[in-house]
Amino acid sequence: MVVLLVVPIYMVIQYSFFDNVIINDNPVFVGFQNFQELLTNESFWVAVKNTLIFVGGSVIAHMIIGITFAMVLNTKYIGPKLQAMFRVIFSLPWMFTAAVIAVLWKMLLNPNGFINFLLVELNLSSTNLEWLASRDLALFSVTMINIWAGYPLFMISILAGLQGIQSQLYESSAIDGANHIKNFFYITLPQLKPILISLILLDFVWTIQQFALIWMTTGGGPIDATEILSTFIYKQGFSEYQYAMASTSAVILLVICTIVAIFYVRHQRGQE
């Protein structure tokens, strides 16, 4: 833990206050100058904006789709065998690695791929769309891919929560004349609240650090249409060799994730 976690974090924080680090034997202490330069960097704010859209869209969609599929699988109208089959099918995206997901969706979203074929056949589009090569569609496309890849975690966790809700609560509400909508908002959601808060906080941290999926599909492009903080940090360090700026960006990301982690720990303690 010390060698692989504590020491690297300390070094990155240290690098953020210096210039000419790693590739120079005489680093220069510049204080908060790197942070000032970064916060006036237009590319950094583009990455921040794209990250907010990517993370916000992913987390919200994960929650909505996860709740929907979990409730479908928890309904009494589907038999045990059919439920088992659907659980396997709905969980498949979570079993794939980022590399498999990237290759799969690059083929599906290819201009001559299945998605465009389907849209043209259904008369929903007159031309083959450049899903991953268009500045207008690329961010939307990678967000949809990430949503598809991540919703099973919510679905499985919420399904476990639904099965832990006492049936007497619904029976009592039925006696009082409550319908399914009222049951959802006054029984299901309040009972799922602890699980949902934990999932949202964890998903936020995982999604804001997403790198492999973006890098293997668009590489942050076209131009900077899908540039998020993780790809921005990588390019600063390993493409432009600006290790001080990369460290500064990483420190800012670390602070954001630490704040969310603090909220998560406090929430867990509150549950106990």
TrEMBL record:
Q: Its domain of life? A: Bacteria
User: Which terms are listed as keywords in the entry?
Assistant: Cell membrane, Membrane, Transmembrane, Transmembrane helix, Transport
Pfam families assigned: BPD_transp_1
Matching entries from SUPFAM superfamilies are given as: MetI-like
Report the membrane topology from the UniProt record. Answer: Multi-pass membrane protein
Where exactly are the transmembrane stretches of this chain? 52-73, 85-105, 137-162, 195-216, 243-265
Xref: InterPro entries: MetI-like (IPR000515), MetI-like_sf (IPR035906)
Location in or out of the cell: Cell membrane
Q: Name one GO cellular component term.
A: plasma membrane
Q: Where is the ABC transmembrane type-1 domain?
A: 48-264
Q: Which GO terms describe its biological process?
A: transmembrane transport
Q: Which family does it belong to?
A: Belongs to the binding-protein-dependent transport system permease family.
What's the protein here called? Answer: ABC transporter permease subunit
Q: From which source organism is this entry?
A: Gracilibacillus salitolerans
